[in-house]
Amino acid sequence: MTESEEIESLINFSKMECVCHFMKQYPNYSSLPDNAHYYLPNLASLLSTDYTPTAEDILHLRVPTASVNEIYFSFNSTKIRLIDVGGQRAYRKKWIHCFEGVSAVLFVASMAAYDQSIPQQGKRSHALQSFYLRLANHCCEPFQKDIFSNKLSNHPLEDYVPGYRGSSNKDASEFLKEYFLKRKSKKDANRMIYSHFTCATDTKNVEFVFRAVCDIVLHKNIESNGIQ
């Protein structure tokens, strides 16, 4: 089969009635990548010979972090060194080597994973993990709020989280946020925690998060210089 024939087969597959029905009937199927509903209907343009990725195409891309990556960039005149670490338990022992001189920890938790299990631990819920880090100030970022809201109608949070008694999407969101924030110990009472709901494709909200990070860095610099 030639490359053009393979492309044609993929496009025809995406248009099959049974495939379209499945995508509509099971929008949050656990084995289906979150971005499948974006990419599959757009296969024809994505696979065209003159295709150039748009900003939206790139934002929907998901590549799991499999190692420790350092990224340097500037945001509103603030120089930021971002250390991206793999989230799987196998990588967590490597984290300790990355925290020297760290001003803030950006903890990203997927709200939409409340009904999924951790590959390394069977049935334990993703969303109810807590690996609270006490090494620096924190910016807790529960994300995928759009997918989370869509899931709740077919997968009620109370079926997976004992003790939850809410009745709306807002109640569910606030419940999970408070779950994470309660992990803050008394001795960490003076540490700042910024908590935000967002989704990876919401560029304005992500910009707001980085403003919070810059605020943390500013406060740390003031403290280190003895300025009250």
Automatic annotation (TrEMBL):
<keyword id="KW-0460">Magnesium</keyword>
<protein>
    <recommendedName>
        <fullName>ADP ribosylation factor</fullName>
    </recommendedName>
</protein>
<feature type="binding site">
    <location>
        <position position="200"/>
    </location>
    <ligand>
        <name>GTP</name>
    </ligand>
</feature>
<feature type="binding site">
    <location>
        <begin position="59"/>
        <end position="65"/>
    </location>
    <ligand>
        <name>GTP</name>
    </ligand>
</feature>
<keyword id="KW-0519">Myristate</keyword>
<keyword id="KW-0564">Palmitate</keyword>
<feature type="binding site">
    <location>
        <position position="65"/>
    </location>
    <ligand>
        <name>Mg(2+)</name>
    </ligand>
</feature>
<keyword id="KW-0449">Lipoprotein</keyword>
<dbReference type="Pfam" id="PF00503">
    <property type="entry name" value="G-alpha"/>
</dbReference>
<dbReference type="GO" id="GO:0005525">
    <property type="term" value="F:GTP binding"/>
</dbReference>
<dbReference type="InterPro" id="IPR027417">
    <property type="entry name" value="P-loop_NTPase"/>
</dbReference>
<dbReference type="GO" id="GO:0046872">
    <property type="term" value="F:metal ion binding"/>
</dbReference>
<keyword id="KW-0342">GTP-binding</keyword>
<dbReference type="InterPro" id="IPR011025">
    <property type="entry name" value="GproteinA_insert"/>
</dbReference>
<dbReference type="GO" id="GO:0003924">
    <property type="term" value="F:GTPase activity"/>
</dbReference>
<keyword id="KW-0807">Transducer</keyword>
<feature type="binding site">
    <location>
        <begin position="84"/>
        <end position="88"/>
    </location>
    <ligand>
        <name>GTP</name>
    </ligand>
</feature>
<dbReference type="InterPro" id="IPR001019">
    <property type="entry name" value="Gprotein_alpha_su"/>
</dbReference>
<dbReference type="GO" id="GO:0005834">
    <property type="term" value="C:heterotrimeric G-protein complex"/>
</dbReference>
<dbReference type="GO" id="GO:0031683">
    <property type="term" value="F:G-protein beta/gamma-subunit complex binding"/>
</dbReference>
<dbReference type="GO" id="GO:0007188">
    <property type="term" value="P:adenylate cyclase-modulating G protein-coupled receptor signaling pathway"/>
</dbReference>
<dbReference type="GO" id="GO:0001664">
    <property type="term" value="F:G protein-coupled receptor binding"/>
</dbReference>
<dbReference type="GO" id="GO:0005737">
    <property type="term" value="C:cytoplasm"/>
</dbReference>
<keyword id="KW-0547">Nucleotide-binding</keyword>
<keyword id="KW-0479">Metal-binding</keyword>
